[in-house]
Fold this protein.
Amino acid sequence: MQQTWLRWSSACCALAFFAACSSSPDKPKPAPLPAVSGEMVVKKVWTNAIGPVTTPLRASVHAGRVAVASTQGQVVLLDAATGKDIWRVKLSDAIQAGVGGDGQRFAVVTGRNELVTIEDGKVIWRYALTALTLTPPLVAGGRVFVLNADRSVTALDGATGQKLWMQQRAGEPLVLNQAGLLMPFGDTLLVGWGGRLAALNPMTGSVRWETLLANSRGTNEVERLVDLVAGVDRLGNTVCARAFQSTVACIDASRGSSLWTRSAQGHEGLAGDDQRVFGAESDSKVIAWQRENGQVAWTQTALRFRGLSAPLVLERSLVLGDDDGVLHFLARQDGKLLQRIGTDGSAIVGRPVLADETLVVVTRTGGVFGYRPE
């Protein structure tokens, strides 16, 4: 089920936000937990805690370190091997979006639309944004890039916070209450603008190319919503992305040319290997598409309506979290259910991440868990 609501950006324009609703009283009942083969053994090796996560926050991996944040203002850099804090910062404001980082500098956006950049556990600068931000900042090439809900992209100097440029694309007033697409690709910045994927020059903000991944459809704002969501799969020059409740598509990002597009009704990102692209639909049906042509390789329906996260490819498995804090391990080859592990009973937020050999997940109540396959 889905819902809309109104919020105000700091630019004083009314924006409507749209999200998948996990608490609706008439949401379909989750499928009973299915039997698993037990062919995969996964061991919990550590736990940590950061406080509740109720805003679009995502873990950020840098070699053997993981940066995480809580809505209440905690920003923590963890050692993925031990789960111990490398540093921890408590901001005075709630955090709305993050974490972005390059291993040296890390950035989040507060509920007051302030970009905050941290280095060695200390805040080094702040910058007031002009609109609400739901996408983690991108820290790359000595710069910090921000994608705002008004579809503007801002670039700032990573050391000083000086504004370098801003580029904006007009679009529908309705935007997703979740992270959008913002990622590096070689010397190019890839940005999701509505149903289009755009390549920007990171030095100037000029547009190099745009490719349509999904068309607006319908007669009202909800039906026309086609924003690209965070969680992109990349293999070489091929980038595969999801447009909210519309399509899954792969493009050649070196030229901006479409390779294939398939209808798909999901709202979480994708993952892939050299043969397939994986994703969960909004009803928690898991689908594997052939990377070469987009044909469906397999479908797993045993986890229907469990509120699955974006997937992570881990060895021969595919890992997805659910709304009950359960991690599900599926075989990449055919979708067979290999294993499942419970966390703390609250929803897995963001996608699971892999740091060196440690699988790291964060839950809604702020639990951070580290696992290793055996």
Notes: Confidence is low (pLDDT under 50) at residues 1-18, 20-24. DSSP finds one helix and 35 strands in the chain.
